[in-house]
Amino acid sequence: MARADAPLQLPTGHPALSPNPPRALLPLLFVGVLMGALDLAIVGPALPAIKADLAMDDRQASVLFNAYVLLQMIGTPLLAKLSDRSGTRLAYMVAIGFFALGSLVVVVAYDPVTLYIGRALQGFGGGGILPVAAAVIAITVEPERRGPALGTLGAVFGLAFLLGPVLGGLLLPYGWHWLFLINLPISAVLGFGALRLLPSAPQPQRQPLDVAGIIALSVLLAALVYGLSVLDVQALGSSLAQWPTALSLLLVIVLVPVFWILEKRAVDPIVRPGLVASRPVAIAATISAGAGAIQSGAGFYPALAVSAIGVSASTAAWMLLPGVVLATIAAPVAGRLVNVLGVRTLILGGMALVVLSLLIYGLAPMSIPVFIVAGMIGSGGMASVMGAPLRIVVLDHCEPRERGSAQGLLSNFTSVGRLVGAAAVGAIAASFGGGGPGYQRAFVALSVLGLALAVLALVLRPAVKARAGAGVGTRQG
Question: I need a labelling partner for 325 at 20 to 30 A (CA). Which of 87, 182, 226, 384 fits?
Fold first, then answer.
C-alpha cells in the first residue's frame, strides 16, 4: 500500500510525470466533465417540454431520473476499473462513446422507453468521465500541481449549474432535442483529443474479469436506487412495510457482505477490499458519503425559501445563484491551497463553514439576505471539502495500478450519500409537519452530521511534506 511519503511508481506504459503536461490535456478533461455535468443541469429546464412532447406523467419522469442515476452508479466503478486495466485513453473514449450514443438515442426518442434507454446509456458513460479524468491527472501531473488541477475539475459542477439554465433558454425554443444533440459534436472532438493526448497502456492487464463482482454490484445498486425511489418519506413506516421497498432494501443488506466476499476472492476485483480497509481511504469515503448527504439538503433550500420567506419557486432558485458562483471560485482556490494548508485543514475549515451554514438555515429567522448569506457560506465550505482534498487523500493512499478504481469508489460513495440524504431530509421534514419548520429541523440534523464528519477528519494522518522528486506526499494536516 502506497504511503503518503512513498515514491510514485508509474504503471507500465504511462508517461513520466511532467511539470508541463500537454497544454490541451486539462481543457480536454475539463470539457468532458463539464459536458456530463451540464447534461444533469439542463434536464430540469427541459423536463416540461419532454413530458408534453412524449405524453409523460410525473411517475414516468421520475423513471427518467432513476435510469440515469442507476446506470451512472454502475458505470462509475466499471469504467474506472477499465482505466486501471486497459489505460485511461480507452476508458475515457468508452465513457464519451456511451455518453454520445445515449445522447443520440435521446434525440431520436419517440416514446418514453426509448428515452429511458438513451438516458441510461448517458448515465453509464457519464459515470466514468470524472473518475477517469481524475486518474489521468494523477498519472500525468506532478503531485504538487494536482491540487489546482483537481480543484478546477471540482469547479465544473458549479459552472454547469450556472450555464445549464442559460443553455436551456437558448436552445429550448428550437426544441428540447437540441439540448442533447449538441453533445454529439462535442463528444467527437473529445474522442479525437483523447486519442491524441491521453496516456495509454501498451500492456493491458490479462487477469480474468470479475464477472461475479460486476453482477453483484449492479444488482446491489439497482436494489438501492429502486428501494429509495419508491420509499414514501411522508409515511415511512407503512412504506417500509410494503414488499417492493422492504425486499429491495433487504436485498441491499444481503448483497453488501456477498459483494465483499466475492471481491476478496476475485483475482482482479472491481474494488480491492484492501483499498476500502485502508484507514485514510475509508475516512475519505465516509466523509464523501456524508458530504453527499449534506449536499442533498441543498435541493430542499428553495422549498424552505418558499415556505419561510414566501417567495416564488423561481425566485428561490435564483437566490441560490450567489452561492453557486462562490463555489465555482472556491473549488480551484481550495485546490491551490492543498499544498499550503494540507487536506485535513481544508476539510476541517470547509466542514466548519458547512455546519455554520446549516445552523443558520435551521435556527435563524429566515429572510432573503440571511438565506443568500447562508448559501454562500455553505457553498464555499462544501467546495473546499468535495473538490481536490478528498480525491488527493485517496490518490496518496492507493496503489498506482488502482487510481481509477479509487476515484470511482469516492464518486460512488458521494452518490450513495446523496440518495440516502435526500430520503432522510424528506423523512425528517415530514416527521415535524413539513413546511419551513420541518425543513429547518432537517438542516439542524444535517449540521450534527457535519460536526461528526469534522471530528472524523481529525483522524487523517498528520502533515507529511513531499520530498524533492517524490511522487506522493501531499500535506495531510
Answer: 182
Q: In whole angstroms, what is the distance from residue 321 CA to residue 476 CA?
A: 32
- What architecture is domain 21-198? Up-down Bundle (1.20)
CA 307 – CA 313 distance, rounded (Å): 10
Q: What residues contact residue 411 under an 8 Å CB cut-off, 6+ apart?
A: 76, 80, 127, 130, 131
The residue among 130, 141, 131 whose CA lies nearest residue 25 is 141
- Collapsing DSSP states into helix, strand and coil, what is residue 173? helix
In sign, the C-alpha dihedral spanning 52, 187, 123, 154 is negative
The label of the residue with cell 494536482 reads: 146
Cell numbers found for residue 160: 454547469
Which cell numbers hold the place of 94? 468508452
Work out the number of other CB atoms within 10 angstroms of the CB of residue 314. Answer: 10
Task: Write down the pLDDT at residue 466.
Answer: 39
Q: Where along the chain do its domains lie?
A: 21-198, 215-269, 272-477
DSSP per residue over 349-376, as a string? HHHHHHHHHHHHHHHSPP-HHHHHHHHH
Tell me the β-bridge partners of 18. 141
What per-residue confidence (pLDDT) applies to 313?
A: 78
CATH topology agreement for domains 21-198 and 272-477: yes
Q: What is the DSSP string of 289-315?
A: HHHHHHHHHGGGHHHHIIIII---HHH
Cell of 451: 460536526
Give domain 272-477's CATH superfamily.
MFS general substrate transporter like domains (1.20.1250.20)
Q: Is 296 within 8 Å of 425 (Cβ atoms)?
A: yes
Mean pLDDT by 10 residues, the chain (477 residues): 35 46 84 88 81 85 85 92 90 96 94 93 94 89 83 80 77 88 94 88 72 92 86 73 86 94 91 87 93 88 89 84 87 86 90 96 93 93 87 86 89 89 85 84 94 91 42 51
For the chain, how far is it from start to end, CA to CA, in angstroms? 20
Determine the Cα–Cα distance for residues 42 and 111; give it in Å rounded to an integer: 20
pLDDT of residue 436: 85
Amino acid of residue 92: Y
* pLDDT, position 474: 54
The pLDDT, as a whole number, for residue 86 is 87
Listed residue (324, 206, 207) closest to 268, CA to CA: 207
